[in-house]
Amino acid sequence: DAGVTQSPTHLIKTRGQQVTLRCSPKSGHDTVSWYQQALGQGPQFIFQYYEEEERQRGNFPDRFSGHQFPNYSSELNVNALLLGDSALYLCASSYGEKLFFGSGTQLSVL
Amino acid sequence: AQKITQTQPGMFVQEKEAVTLDCTYDTSDPSYGLFWYKQPSSGEMIFLIYQGSYDQQNATEGRYSLNFQKARKSANLVISASQLGDSAMYFCAMRFLDTGRRALTFGSGTRLQVQP
């Protein structure tokens, strides 16, 4: 049984560009959440998707948007990249109370 | 809003000994869940253990146990018989149980180093 998978593992972009990160949830999980983890800090909640709808959103600007597909996989899009967007982006899937995370996408903005 | 506090930025433990990582939380809501995750240098956030606020027994998962003291609002992680592979960052996290507030709030983490 595959766990949560994320792609790509690493990404380098320049300021002003746009980026799309992808996540496939653990089998049987219908809810996907995205988190941003800056170096040396705990993860910060971006948003959560359930039944293809954004169910909850954290304190992130509209430049951060997402999508969930009928197969429960999800994308995180970030527009107009800033240097401060450099971070590890973690996807988590859940069915019930427990959340399981992927290995993350390390985004570097130059 | 909930808050998670981990007061130990770093901890050292000898191999085969037990270690306790501290976590306190602050909420007035009665329905919540508490989590511990391990994050090795590879970056993956590995689920260790979960405790619901209404659970009567302390949660255990193999060598991991959660010392849940509801009145003191603490949820300490106990790792028995430490192994070298336990060296990593450990995060305590909490979320509410109602469907509209499912975001996890994390503490700042504790870096555990297991010495041979």
Main features:
heterodimer, A: about 110 residues, mainly beta, seven-stranded mixed beta sheet, four-stranded antiparallel beta sheet, 11 strands, globular, B: about 120 residues, six-stranded mixed beta sheet, 12 strands, about 0% helix
Structure description:
The complex is a heterodimer of chains A (110) and B (116). Chain A has 110 residues and is mostly beta strands. In chain A, the strands form two sheets. In chain A, strands 2, 4, 5, 6, 9, 10 and 11 form a seven-stranded mixed β-sheet that branches. A four-stranded antiparallel β-sheet of chain A has the order 1-3-8-7, with no helix packed on it. In chain A, a hairpin with a 2-residue loop joins strand 5 and strand 6 (53-57). Chain A starts with a strand and ends with a strand. Chain A has strands at 5-7, 10-13, 19-24, 31-37, 44-50, 53-57, 64-68, 74-78, 87-94, 99-101, 105-109. Chain B has no helices and twelve strands. The mean pLDDT of chain B is 94. Chain B is mainly beta and 116 residues long. Chain A binds chain B through residues 31, 33, 35, 41-45, 48, 55-56, 58, 88, 90, 92, 94, 97-104, 106, and chain B through 4, 33, 35, 37, 42-47, 50, 52, 91, 93, 97, 99-109.
In short:
The complex is a heterodimer of chains A (110) and B (116). Chain A has 110 residues and is mainly beta.
Question: Largest sheet of chain B, if any?
Answer: 6 strands, mixed
Number of helical regions of chain A: 0
Provide the structure class of chain B.
mainly beta
pLDDT under 50 segments of chain A (min length 5)? Answer: none
The helix/strand series of chain B, from N terminus to C terminus, equals EEEEEEEEEEEE
SSE run of chain A: EEEEEEEEEEE
CA(first)-CA(last) distance of chain A = 37 Å
Structural category of chain A is mainly beta
Number of helical regions of chain B: 0
Which oligomeric form is depicted?
heterodimer
Outline of chain A: globular
Query: Which regions of chain B have little confidence, pLDDT < 50, spanning 5+ residues?
Result: none
Note the gap between the termini of chain B: 41 Å
> What is the total tally of β strands of chain A?
11
- What portion of residues of chain A is helical? under 10%
